[in-house]
Amino acid sequence: MAQSQLSITTDEAQAFKLGLLSAFGAYLLWGVVPGYYKLTAEVPAAIVICYRILGSVLFVGGYLALVGKLHQLREIVASKRTFFMVCLATLLVTTNWLVFIYSVEADRILDASLGYFINPLVSVALGVVFLKERLSKGQVLALAISLLAVLYQTFLLGIFPWISLYLAISFALYGLVRKRTPVGALSGQLGEVLIATPVALFGLAYFGSIGMNVVPHDDPWLLVALIGTGLVTAVPLTLFAYGARRLPLTYIGFMQYVAPSLQFILAVWVWNEPLSWERFLSFAVIWCALAIFTIDSVYGYRKRRAAR
Fold it and tell me: What is the distance between the alpha carbons of residues 190 and 47, in angstroms, rounded to a whole number?
């Protein structure tokens, strides 16, 4: 009996480590991905999304076919609930992509960065509401401070941060849905983009019919970059899905700061987006909230580990 319990504990620890590495890798890639979408910035975001969906079908579907695991798609239609959850995840992630690509094309990466700074705190709140995870006093304080930052931008600066809020809420909900959907990381992602494929094909046909250049024959490198959005999408999203199913939602939120930190650095020091002192203050407030959240999470983890 003791050996069985030890084996279970070891397996759980291994799964936790793999989940941690996968999620961290996903956030690292998401942090630098705006640089890739600068390559396609001359193409409207709606067209880029269509290529992103179709490219994901190509790369993820091709890989699963290569390793003989396309049969895993049956998981998605195993029950009406599972299929509904995958459809919901599709809606959340594709609209998140659309708003994010718009922010890159409109030189509003700072807005996207703020959204992904807020995201971990939204994830924590969803963990409490839907997964019955308990909040410590430090986490409650961090949530309250982040709310103040949003209110500061909305009322004192006169800017409703719709990009930031939509990215934060939609991706937190996506993480929650994927965590509660019993499908594999790759098969789940392929199912999502397959569900979105008819919309993507219709979109390209429609944009072409109104005279837009949906297939840039005169610029083959741009066409390659558009198709490559599928690969850029598939790798980090698969890593995230793998990690999300093996980590508590609070840990997923904890690592989220990696991506927006890189986006913030790129926006200010590489693409020279304007950052006023007033707006910098709203970021500083969020950073304080994240610092409190981080310290509290590390302390809580060490305390639970010592107790075990």
Answer: 20
**CA-angle at 96, arms to 60 and 145, nearest 5°:** 130
Condensed to tens digits (0 to 9), the pLDDT of residues 41-84 reads: 999 999 999 999 999 999 999 988 988 989 989 989 889 999 99
41 C-beta neighbours (distance < 10 Å), count: 15
- SS3 breakdown of the chain: % helix, strand, coil, rounded to 5? 80, 0, 20
Run of H or E including 239:
helix 220-244
pTM, two decimal places: 0.83
> Does residue 183 contact residue 86 with C-beta atoms inside 8 Å?
yes
Under DSSP, the state recorded for 181 is: S
Torsion over CA: 197, 201, 202, 203 (sign): positive
Find out whether 154 and 114 touch, Cβ atoms under 8 Å. no
